[in-house]
Design goal:
Oligomer: single chain
Number of helices: 5
Shape: flat
Structural class: mainly alpha
Number of domains: 2
Number of strands: 0
Order of helices and strands: HHHHH
Length: about 130
């Protein structure tokens, strides 16, 4: 049963990417409270929304942590892991700059622009490249 449709794996991933980007990732990234209203959260009564978003973010951070640990211990997927780290850093810089411009976050969040910029620099400095022989 596992892998019965393996020949269509790439098509499946493409369709899944399009749907989840349009329905979840894009709206949550760009218009989180509007997305929450679409999914029947009542704002501001449902303060559990902040907990929900926090848990979702935490879940994805744990995935990245798992990728980093696997790559650190085994070397498996190390290039992909560095690509993910760079993408995380870039998007988090964007998120924090947006929050700073809109003045909707505490100064500690604005300070994270420097932290994520530093992470990007470190990820690029330590990026694994094939050594010429």
């Amino acid at each position: 049963m596992i892998g019965i449709y393996h020949a269509h794996a790439q098509t499946f991933l493409l369709i899944l990417t399009i749907v989840t980007t349009l329905v979840f990732a894009g709206p949550i990234f760009l218009i989180p409270l509007t997305w929450a209203r679409w999914f029947q959260w009542r704002i501001p009564e449902h303060t559990d929304l902040a907990v929900y978003f926090g848990r979702c973010l935490g879940a994805f951070i744990l995935i990245v942590e798992g990728l980093m640990l696997r790559a650190a211990l085994t070397g498996e997927g190390i290039v992909f892991t560095f690509q993910v780290l760079a993408a995380v850093a870039i998007f988090m810089v964007i998120v924090h700059i947006w929050g700073a411009i809109k003045r909707i976050q505490p100064w500690t969040e604005t300070a994270e622009i420097g932290m994520y910029s530093g992470l990007l620099v470190l990820a690029l400095l330590f990026y694994p490249i094939a050594q010429s022989q």
